[in-house]
């Protein structure tokens, strides 16, 4: 345990890497993984804070895709 400050589950999820198989199995695992993250934020934030966080993630994802020229 961190002596200075204990980290919440959100910090753990942010640092966690998820390796997924290709195809339908990978899609199912990805959905389960992201559902857990969303569920954590939904339970620990107000609805407004949750929606702000999801919007922030969407903007980051769009920026990431544009940088990779995938959009």
Brief rundown of the structure:
This protein has helices at residues 9-15, 24-44, 47-67. The protein is mainly α and 71 residues long.
C-alpha termini separation: 42 Å
Radius of gyration using CA atoms only? 15 Å
DSSP helical segment count: 3
By DSSP, the count of extended strands is: 0
Based on secondary structure, the structural category is mainly alpha
Which sequence of SSEs, written as H and E, runs from N to C?
HHH
Instruction: Give the biggest beta sheet.
Output: none
Unreliable spans are none
Residue-averaged pLDDT: 80
- What level of helicity do the residues show? 55-70%
Shape: flat
Strand content: under 5%
Report on this model:
By secondary structure, the chain is mostly helical. Helix content is 69%, strand content 0%. It has three helices and no strands. It has helices at 9-15, 24-44, 47-67. The longest helix is centred in the middle third of the chain and has 21 residues, at 24-44. The mean pLDDT is 80.
What layout of secondary structure does this protein have?
Elements: H1 9-15, H2 24-44, H3 47-67
Task: Give keywords.
single chain, 71 residues, mainly alpha, 3 helices, 69% helix, flat
């Amino acid at each position: 345990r961190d002596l200075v400050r204990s980290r919440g589950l959100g910090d753990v999820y942010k640092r966690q890497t998820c390796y997924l198989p290709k195809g339908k199995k990978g899609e199912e695992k990805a959905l389960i993984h992201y559902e857990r993250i969303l569920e954590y934020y939904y339970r620990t934030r107000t609805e407004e804070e949750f929606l702000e966080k999801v919007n922030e993630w969407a903007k980051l994802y769009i920026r990431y895709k544009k940088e990779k020229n995938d959009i």
